[in-house]
């Protein structure tokens, strides 16, 4: 009997993709149920509070977990040592910011533009003590390529968070929507605690396997040199990553404010913001879980290839990742375009998000290329290009939001324009920084395959969508067609990848 040998990279991407898919599915189900419980205004408050939480979380962690992953990939034996040192710093900083956020929650809420946000910020602040530590531990294990245990911890975290969030919201709903939805966010902290404990127990149990089995290599750098490297690497990564949650928080301040300038009251502006960020953006960013899985698993391999000066291998893997992301992005864009109405109805029982999904349909392709190009640049030790692109993109987006949203006929579409411009700018600048990698790609062949792919895929989407007319499941009649379309695309990509490696 012939055995099928699965390449390690496929196995690791599969594990990562399976975990991310399950985590996102749990999160999506939780978000959908919560949205139906609290409405668009409630989910708008949820998004605004999470924009603050995400920004502060990145302020605490910066690029340290990623820097630790890169360091551990190069020097396995010393990764645990640096994890313990950095944990002390994270505990002190996390505890301080947690207490400050709780004590000044009303001032923060007023600054964000809605006093009701204090009900969300106080419970979320508790997570700022434990979740950064969890992120640091995952960074250490990523450097050791322990993707399975990282995946399990993510599933535990998300499952505990969602179950507790929905349970608390349901129990407290008689006391008011805002109070119930806000207090339910304590599930974020408890989910982080559950994941951290399970991950720490695994790490301590297997530490000898990863540390003792490696004899510490002769030190080519002093402790001071390593510290300087951590500071420099973390700072550059942090500046890039910190800008994304900063942009989200900026959006949470600017978009509702400018909608009120356009004539909407506070409740309507919050609901429209929730419709955009809590519904439409949630859907259009879902296909990027595949890109995230590829980026997460390929980064460490690219780091090692670049360090050992295997430039040919580095370029080949980078180009292969870019092609996969390109194909998946196009397939996802077509899916969103054809199924926009069904997605809005199935997930949120409202047609209101369909138009925004249509305007944002290109997001999976652009964001997918942005994520993978950022990973390639970081693997080369080049953090400046992504940083510059992100700064320019966020500035243009904020300018568009401020200028376009109040204009008659635009309003929420002005926010969409800003989001799209930001992603396009960052991706374009990243690609310009990878000229040597991109120039080696056979663009003519890729474009030809893309054209053929489109010619086949557009009718396929139309046919799978028509399956709903044969099934009487109400708003869920299109689900079989959706799954069939996704299955056909995934099958094509697997066949194509295996042909390239035979």
User: Which shape, going by the Cα principal axes?
Assistant: globular
- Spatial separation of the terminal alpha carbons: 19 Å
Question: Residue share in helices?
Answer: over 70%
Helical stretch tally: 19
**Could you describe the largest sheet, including whether it forms a barrel?**
none
On the 0 to 100 scale, the average pLDDT is 83
Strand content: under 5%
Using only CA atoms, what is the Rg? 23 Å
Contiguous low-pLDDT stretches (5 residues minimum) are: 211-220
**Secondary-structure element series:** HHHHHHHHHHHHHHHHHHH
Structural class: mainly alpha
Beta-strand segment tally: 0
GO cellular component, one term: plasma membrane
InterPro entries: PG_synth_SpoVB, Poly_Biosynth_Transport, Polysacc_synth
Transmembrane segments: 21-38, 50-73, 85-105, 117-137, 178-202, 229-255, 275-300, 321-339, 359-378, 385-404, 410-434, 446-467, 473-495
Keywords: Cell membrane, Membrane, Transmembrane, Transmembrane helix
Describe the protein's architecture and organization.
This protein is mainly alpha-helical and 502 residues long. The protein has a domain at 7-220. The chain contains 19 helices and no strands. It is a multi-pass membrane protein. It is found in: Cell membrane.
């Amino acid at each position: 009997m012939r055995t099928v040998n699965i390449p390690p990279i496929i196995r690791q991407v599969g594990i990562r993709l399976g975990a991310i898919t399950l985590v996102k599915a749990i999160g999506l189900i939780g978000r959908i149920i919560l949205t139906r419980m609290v409405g668009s205004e409630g989910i708008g408050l949820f998004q605004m509070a999470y924009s603050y939480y995400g920004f502060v979380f990145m302020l605490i962690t910066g690029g340290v977990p990623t820097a630790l992953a890169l360091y551990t990939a190069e020097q396995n034996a010393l990764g645990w040592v640096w994890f313990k040192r950095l944990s002390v710093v994270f505990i002190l900083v996390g505890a301080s910011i947690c207490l400050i956020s709780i004590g000044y929650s009303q001032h923060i809420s007023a600054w964000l533009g809605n006093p009701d946000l204090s009900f969300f910020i106080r419970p979320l602040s508790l997570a700022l003590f434990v979740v950064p530590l969890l992120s640091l531990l995952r960074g250490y294990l990523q450097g050791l390529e322990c993707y399975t245990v990282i995946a399990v911890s993510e599933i535990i975290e998300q499952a505990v968070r969602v179950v507790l969030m929905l349970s608390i919201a349901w129990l407290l709903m008689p006391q008011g929507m805002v109070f119930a939805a806000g207090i339910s966010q304590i599930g974020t902290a408890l989910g982080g605690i559950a994941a951290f404990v399970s991950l720490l127990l695994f790490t301590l149990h297997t530490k000898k396997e990863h540390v003792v089995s490696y004899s510490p290599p002769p030190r080519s750098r002093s402790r001071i040199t390593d510290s300087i490297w951590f500071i420099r690497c973390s700072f550059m990564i942090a500046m890039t990553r910190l800008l994304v949650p900063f942009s989200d928080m900026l959006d949470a301040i600017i978009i509702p404010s400018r909608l009120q300038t356009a004539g909407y009251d506070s409740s309507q502006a919050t609901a429209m913001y929730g419709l955009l960020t809590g519904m439409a953006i949630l859907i259009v960013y879902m296909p990027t879980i595949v890109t995230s899985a590829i980026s997460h698993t390929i980064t460490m391999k690219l780091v090692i290839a670049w360090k050992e000066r295997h430039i040919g291998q580095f370029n080949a893997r980078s180009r292969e990742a870019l092609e996969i992301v390109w194909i998946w992005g196009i397939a996802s864009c077509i899916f969103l375009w054809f199924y926009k109405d069904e997605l809005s109805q199935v997930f949120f029982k409202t047609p209101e998000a369909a138009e925004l999904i249509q305007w944002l349909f290109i997001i999976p392709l652009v964001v997918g290329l942005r994520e993978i190009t950022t990973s390639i640049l970081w693997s080369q030790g080049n953090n400046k290009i992504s940083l510059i692109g992100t700064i320019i993109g966020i500035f243009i987006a904020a300018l568009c939001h401020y200028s376009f949203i109040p204009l008659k006929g635009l309003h929420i579409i002005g926010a969409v324009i800003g989001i799209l411009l930001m992603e396009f700018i960052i991706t374009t600048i990243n690609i310009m920084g990878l000229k040597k990698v991109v120039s080696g790609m056979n663009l003519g062949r890729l474009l030809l395959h893309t054209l053929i792919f489109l010619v086949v895929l557009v009718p396929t989407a139309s046919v799978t969508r028509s399956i709903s007319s044969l099934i009487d499941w109400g708003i869920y009649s299109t689900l079989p067609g959706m799954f069939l379309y996704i299955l056909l695309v995934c099958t094509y990509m697997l066949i194509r990848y295996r042909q390239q490696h035979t």
